[in-house]
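Hey, sorry to bother you again with one of my protein questions. A protein chain has come my way and I'm curious about its shape. It would help a lot if you went through both lines with me. I owe you a coffee for this, so here goes:
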Amino acid sequence: MSVITIPRVLREKLGEEAAEALVDVFNKVEPAPAKIKAELSKELATKADLSLEIGKVNERITLEIGKVNERITLEIGKVNERITEESGKLRVDIEKVRSEVEKSSKENIKWMFLFWIGQIAVMFAIIKFLLVK
């Protein structure tokens, strides 16, 4: 506890009784900073605890994010395998369609030639029929 002295000029203006009362008021007020200091210390300790807890939460979040990233990577790998498998099947199906179109084209060309030959034969028959008369 610190000693408070009141200057002589102030003692003379206030009077002895008022000066003593002022000293008492200051003495009663002085413990308050210690109380505030204790509250601040308690608050700082609470903040330190909160910082520790925040650190733990951050570690947990980092761990969980790592697990999620691993899971996503695994799932993406599975999807890529499935896409590769399906694209292989699609290529096989495309080749089947191409071969069928090729067969169909050859068959159509064969029938077109037969039709043209028939048409030419019919035209010669008509021309011969018209010229013979």
Notes: The two ends are 151 Å apart (CA to CA).
